[in-house]
Protein 1
Amino acid sequence: EAGVAQSPRYKIIEKRQSVAFWCNPISGHATLYWYQQILGQGPKLLIQFQNNGVVDDSQLPKDRFSAERLKGVDSTLKIQPAKLEDSAVYLCASSLYGRGEQYFGPGTRLTVT
Amino acid sequence: AQSVTQPDIHITVSEGASLELRCNYSYGATPYLFWYVQSPGQGLQLLLKYFSGDTLVQGIKGFEAEFKRSQSSFNLRKPSVHWSDAAEYFCAVGAGNNDMRFGAGTRLTVKP
C-alpha cells in the first residue's frame, strides 16, 4: 500500500512570495489533514477535510493560508504572501473515516528568508 | 480544550537500558491517545494507540504504554532501548479522528 505522498520536499522562498504544497493521501482515505510543525514543537492542525468538505479550519490563518481538496482525493495548501514565521515543516496526513489512526507523509520543509 | 504535556524535552539513555517517556493530558471526556515517533527528516509514524479497553497497550518496535485515568497519563515504555530508537517522540490526544492535539515532543538520544 502506497503511503501519503507530498511534494516538494524542500522549498526556500523570500518573504511576501507565494508557495504551494501538494498532498496525495492513501487511496480510499476520506479524511485529510494539514499540519504545521515549527522547529522544536509538535504538529499543529491547520485544516481537516472529510472528502472534499472542510471539517475544521479553526487554526488556519485565513488571511494568508488557503487549502482545497476539489475531488476529495489530493489536496493543495497555499501560502500567499509568506512571512518569516511560516518557516516550518508542513505535514499532510490521512485516515479512514471513523478511525483515529492517521498516516503521515514525509513533509515539506519551508524556509522563508 | 484538550492539551498534552510532555515534561521531558530531551532524554538520554544507554543502549540496552529501559525507557519511560512521560505524557500527561487534559481532556473533557474519554480521550483517544496516541504515541508517534519521528526520525529526522521523516513524517510521523504511529507506535500505538488507546481507544478503550485494556489500559496497557502494546505497539510496534517493542513499545508499550499504559493509560492511567486517575493520573491523566499515558506514559510510553520500552524494556531495552536500541540505538535505532533515537528519534523524537510525540504524544497526542484527540476525539477519534477529530481535533488532534500533539505534545511538544521528547527527543531521545541513545548512548552506545
Note: The two ends of chain A are 37 Å apart (CA to CA).
Protein 2
Amino acid sequence: ETGVTQSPTHLIKTRGQQVTLRCSSQSGHNTVSWYQQALGQGPQFIFQYYREEENGRGNFPPRFSGLQFPNYSSELNVNALELDDSALYLCASSLAGREGAGELFFGEGSRLTVL
Amino acid sequence: AQRVTQPEKLLSVFKGAPVELKCNYSYSGSPELFWYVQYSRQRLQLLLRHISRESIKGFTADLNKGETSFHLKKPFAQEEDSAMYYCAPLGGSARQLTFGSGTQLTVLP
C-alpha cells in the first residue's frame, strides 16, 4: 500500500509568482483535501476534491485553486504569491462516505517560502 | 462561526503522571470529534475518534456536549507520548476537519 506523497518537499518563490504543488493519494482513496499550516498554527482547510470536482472550500481567496485527476492525484495552484503564503502545505487523502470522513492520511507536506 | 480551542500551547508532565490535553469547540449541530498526533519527524496521523470509543495507546477522550469539550486523557504518560496533539471537529460543507492550534506535550523522564 502506497502512502500519500507530495512534491516538491521544499521550494522558494518570489512575491507575485505562481506555484503548483502535487499530491498522490494513498492507494484506494478517492478524496483529497489540502491544508495550509503556518508556523506555530494548526492546519487550515483550503479545499477538498472528490470525483475531480471541488466539493468544499475554506476561507481562502480564488487565487488558490486545485485539480483532481482521474487517478485521484491532485494539484494545488497558487497565483500571485504573497509573503503570507509562506507555509507548509499538506495534502491528505481519504475515502468518501461516513466511515472515511475524518480519517485523513497525510503527506509530509511541501514547504513554500515566498520572498 | 465554527471554532475549536486548545488553550495550552505547551504542556509538560513527568513520566508516569496523568495527562489531560484540553479541547473546547463551538460548532453548530453535533460534530464528530477527532484527535490527531504528530510525533517528531513523522507525518500527522489519526489518534482516535470519539464515535469509536476506543482507547488508543492508552489515550481516551470523552465528548461532553454540555461543556462542548473533548479532552484527551491518559492515566500514566510515557516518554514516547511526547508529540504535538491536535483536536479536530468534523463539519462544514465538505465534512472537513477543522484543526485546533495544537498542544505540544513533553513527557519528562
Note: The CA atoms of residues 34 and 88 of chain B lie 5 Å apart.
